[in-house]
């Protein structure tokens, strides 16, 4: 007898230990390319050793979506074990992963529901966690998918980039933004909105940037009941913990997760990145 739902995502999501151990969750890794050497995000390169590799290598690495063949192989295996697949992927406007995953599912002929998260990282983690919880509660696949899709528009996220050069060379930032950040010493605050990177604000110091983000959360918290928040970092655990301490002091009932950004995201955002996200619902 086939199991009901297989959950598929990519390595831009933060895969918690619980998700790693879940028998129905499958993660397809992105590729990180240093010259002629290709690494698999989360498998042969991790956030712990990524930045060391970057510092040792003369050129910045590049990233690539998973080959469609990896998705085909996975869906052929899942077709034998599951009735259908729910796939949650990084924004389709940032990566071709979502399109490749759908194309592979069509080729195999497996029944699927594709969700374009229009986000990345812990936003996708929360979507997976909530979906699995709803499944445990006995919700139908249609109810689960509808709920997760409703989360997309409720996401609020802000990113303090650690390395503007990497974001610019990776094609995620235009020349004007790069000039402002490097030549004028302005700290740009980036957000992912409608699935693409957008400039949210520009401030002079990181201290002011942090206060800006705290103010944003305070404003959101006054309007809706927010019960969880994620702080993401590129090799800045101590600073992420300081952010958590500031938030816990003011919002003691708030559940706060801290995690490193994935290696794929780290290639573009750079070491030193700090970000925060939550859902306004």
Mind explaining what this structure looks like?
The protein is an alpha/beta fold and 281 residues long. It has two domains: 3-30 and 65-152, Rossmann fold (3-Layer(aba) Sandwich), CATH 3.40.50.10170; 155-279, Hypothetical Protein Tm841, Chain: A,domain 3 (2-Layer Sandwich). It contains eleven helices and 13 strands. The chain has helices at 17-21, 47-56, 68-81, 97-108, 122-136, 141-152, 164-169, 175-183, 206-223, 237-250, 263-269; strands at 3-10, 25-28, 31-34, 37-40, 62-64, 82-89, 112-116, 155-160, 187-193, 196-203, 228-233, 255-260, 274-279. Strands 10-9-8-13-11-12 form a six-stranded mixed β-sheet. Strands 2-1-6-7 form a four-stranded parallel β-sheet, sandwiched between helices. Strands 4-3-5 form a three-stranded antiparallel β-sheet, covered by helices on one side. Strand 3 (31-34) and strand 4 (37-40) form a beta hairpin. Helix 3 (68-81) crosses helix 4 (97-108) and helix 5 runs antiparallel to helix 6. The chain is globular. The relative contact order is 0.16.
The gist of it:
With 281 residues, the chain is α/β, with parallel strands linked by helices. It is built from eleven helices and 13 strands.
Helices and strands in order, then pairings?
Blueprint lengths: L2 E8 L6 H5 L3 E4 L2 E4 L2 E4 L6 H10 L5 E3 L3 H14 E8 L7 H12 L3 E5 L5 H15 L4 H12 L2 E6 L3 H6 L5 H9 L3 E7 L2 E8 L2 H18 L4 E6 L3 H14 L4 E6 L2 H7 L4 E6 L2
Parallel strand pairs: 1-2, 1-6, 6-7, 11-12
Antiparallel strand pairs: 3-4, 3-5, 8-9, 8-13, 9-10, 11-13
Pfam families: DegV
Protein name: Protein DegV
GO molecular function: lipid binding
